[in-house]
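Hi again,

Forgot to attach this to my earlier email, sorry! This is the prediction with 2'-deoxycytidine-5'-monophosphate bound. I've pasted everything inline since the attachment limit keeps bouncing my files.
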Amino acid sequence: MGYNIAIDGPAGAGKSTVAKKIAEKKQFIYVDTGAMYRAMALYFLKNGIRGEEEEKISATCKDADITIRYVDGEQVVFLNGENVNGMIRTQEVGNMASVTSPNPDVRKKLVELQQQLAKNADVVMDGRDIGTCVLPDADVKVYLTAGSGVRAKRRYEELLAKGMECDLEQIEKEIIERDERDMNREISPLRQADDAVLVDSSGMTIEEVVEKIIGLCDETC
Ligand code: DC
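Structure tokens for the complex follow:
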């Protein structure tokens, strides 16, 4: 068994930034599960499937071969053999991932892949249901959150830095809608696991959050 760190929380809480840094410092593998739901969502969009077409989603997800490889320490997601890292970071794909991820067939397929990745390796994995469902026995569980205004501002700056056009108010509206959906779905809703440590990053720097989580690891080693 590897050493497993699970980080869950709402959109824009800083999960991936923090998880990547922890992985670097501890020489762990970083598993970004949101990227897998995003790759799946991209496949539905490419096939002209709409979010409400449950049966088509269940049937079509079986044809989506999603694999993960690591190139220079970076997670690269392949969708039917194609590197889709450059296509999955848009608001459109993120919203579609939130709409289609409640589907049980989508979840079953991706959770299996995630558990496989964590089986024999030291991993830091982030998502919505890692501490509650994917890795219930993780060594360290963190629920990372921040106020919706702070999270929207971070997403906005991230998209701007990539040269994407965006609107702060629209982003905050979408973040709130996304949280609503992710927290209120029937299967594996986003919630803090009973044994997870709550970290509110609103007034913290990235480094402070990283140090806090590494401190939690040191306590359990
Ligand atoms: O973390 P992210 O923004 O890349 O995730 C995109 C969507 O994927 C998110 O709104 C809900 C879904 N998701 C999920 O249901 N379970 C996970 N473990 C990770 C993401």
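The chain has two domains: 1-28+124-221, 32-121. The longest helix spans residues 168-184.

That should be everything now.

G.
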